[in-house]
Amino acid sequence: MGRFADRVRAARAERRLVVQPRMGFGALEKMRAGLLAVRDCRATTVGTVTLDSYTRVGDHASARRALAETGGADLNGFPLQAYGARAVRELLASVAADGFPVQVRHGSPLPLDLFRTMVEAGVDATEGGPVSYCLPYGRVPLPEAADNWARCCELAAEAPRPMHLETFGGCMLGQLCPPSLLVALSVLEARFFREHGLRSVSLSYAQQVHLGQDLEALAALRRLAAEHLPGVDWHVTLYTYMGVFPRTPIGSFRLLEDSVRLAVHSGTERLIVKTPAEARRIPAIEENVEALEFADAIARQAAADCAVTRCPEPAGTGLLDEARTLIDATLELGRTTGAALVSAFARGVLDVPYCLHRDNAGAARAVIDEHGMLAWSRAGGMPVTVRGTGLGSPGPLTARRLTTMLAHNERRYDREHTVGALLRSPA
Amino acid sequence: MSVHPIRTHPLRVTVSSVSSDAHMWNLVHLQLLLEEAGHEVTNLGVCPPDATVLDACRGADRPDLLVLSTVNGHGHLDGLRLVRTLRRDPELAALPVVIGGKLGVRGAADDRLGQRLLDAGFTAVFNETEEPAERLLADFLGFLGTLAATAPPIPAGAR
Questions:
Q1: Which has more pLDDT, A423 or A235?
Q2: For residue B124, which of A189, A263, A374, B49 sits 20 to 30 Å off, Cα-Cα?
């Protein structure tokens, strides 16, 4: 199945959670040092090479200029095309001891050129999807992205060592997207990958704002993946919260800790962590290692805890049914999953709340409801149930209410620091 | 809610990211904020090529203000290039243009980016690595108030 899936399967057999950073540096030597530090740290890891934003949007001239002028120090990630396949192959070979697999993360709606380079360089795995890397990340029309991604999948599937591909559909906009839609999109993108020849995939889901709801979502994701991906080797990847992050170290680590427990209790195989530094800047190598080792320690503890105490339970909000309805309503609209996705977005049967892309209907709205869960406040054209009016007073969405919802986790997790400071300081 | 003492006009504001930045929430928030203040917003969305931004500011589409919002750390590079091009264009040379967000990747070491961007032609710069976000937002609203007090009203036929 390839080194990436092999490593995940081996970890699962040992009941270990695979942890992975979000890491990308412009300078080749720093990228190598980062991969080595991740490989050799005290955790079960896979490596990450996150590309810079110029490379993501296909502006390789700017990436080359930044390499020439400052050696890449000014870039917010690794410029894959500017370095070229040979340099990438050498980089991967130099860190490949013990079959250490590396995933390239790119965020590009039209990644065919990147896929060519990745296949030529022998990259183990990458991620994205026709919807998840189109609607939130650019201006490319959805049908064009779907065509491009179809060719990418076929290229990745026909490579001498077929690549592993992860959906990003479970992470749309990072926050404020109700989980039923995240689950539906992740499954639909995985179906798309399968239809275009891939046989080793993973399905993503990003931690949201409520443990019970997230557990319910991950159970639904596994159930629907099993139904829709016959003959495919698959696992689930959880992302530590991708929205506005706590500002305090204690708040950040608590949120990371909760994502680890969520992964363990839901049977998730792989976790992509965040670091406390990320709220302010791109984290250093040491900060990534610290987060990975912390996550690994919590994962082992959580697995041990579960043997003696009751694990947290999923909520019962009907999430599986809603996700299934979204998937079925989409698949009715086209002969292939790709055509169905394009048609579903054109008709608003799929509609990502707050997404500004012109191929997204933009009629649906989501809120954090009185239970602290994500809920629909406006369904648009989607077959979903409107439950919530949201935190605070009902009425139109204001900038202040949006900020309050976006900062929900930041506030919740930083509160612990505030209270802790009160308890520590003499009255 | 404070009332601005001077009679102000609604502004036509074009909100945009820069070419390499795909972050969206900052743009959604800015649009709501500006609309609540009574202004008319055109939101260009994420990752606009420079030409898209320039074209959206020409002729009948010309706004009273162009607001670039970016948080991916490339703002100092993309913004610099964009504003230089924009200032070379006679039609756009006098357009009020501001940029705000996380403009560099080096945190506190980016404290001189603001001046560099102002020198290159920005009307105002709101750099999160130089000032806390809350104060920047207040500064931005103050800037809008001043501009709204001085800008000519939108002609009735132009809306």
A1: A235
A2: B49
Helices and strands (H and E) in chain B: how many: 5, 5
Whether B4 shows a pLDDT value over 70: the answer reads: no
A-chain residues within 8 Å CB-CB of B105? 74-76, 281-282
Whether A53 sits inside 8 A of B46 (CB atoms) is no
In a domain, B111, yes or no: yes
* Domain range enclosing B81: 12-149
Chain A contact for B60, CB < 8 A?
Answer: no
CA angle A372, A376, A378 (to 5 degrees): 140
Contact B20 A59 (CB under 8 A): yes
Radius of gyration for chain A, computed over Cα atoms and rounded to the nearest angstrom: 21
Average pLDDT over residues A165-175: 97
- Model pTM score: 0.91
Read off the CATH number of the domain in which B21 is found. 3.40.50.280
Q: Report pLDDT for A333.
A: 98
Average of per-residue pLDDT across A195-223: 98
C-beta separation of A375 from A388 below 8 A: yes
State the alpha helices, DSSP H only, in A196-228: 211-228
Chain A residues with CB under 8 Å of a chain B CB are 53-54, 56-57, 59, 62, 66, 74-76, 107, 136-139, 173-175, 280-282, 354-358, 397-399, 402-403, 406
Structural domain count of chain B: 1
Q: If you average pLDDT over each of A32-36, A282-286, A396-400, B111-115, which comes out highest? A: A32-36
Domain-embedded: residue B78: yes
**Which residue, B5, B2, B34, is CA-closest to B14?**
B34
Nearest to A57 among B29, B43, B47 (CB): B47
Query: Is residue B2 included in any domain, yes or no?
Result: no
pLDDT surpassing 70 at residue A349: yes
Structural domain includes residue B4: no
pLDDT exceeds cutoff 70 at A389 = no
Nearest to B29 among A138, A282, A402 (CB): A402
Q: Which domains does chain A have, with CATH numbers?
A: 3-308 (3.20.20.240)
Give bridge partners of residue A103 from the DSSP assignment: A48, A125
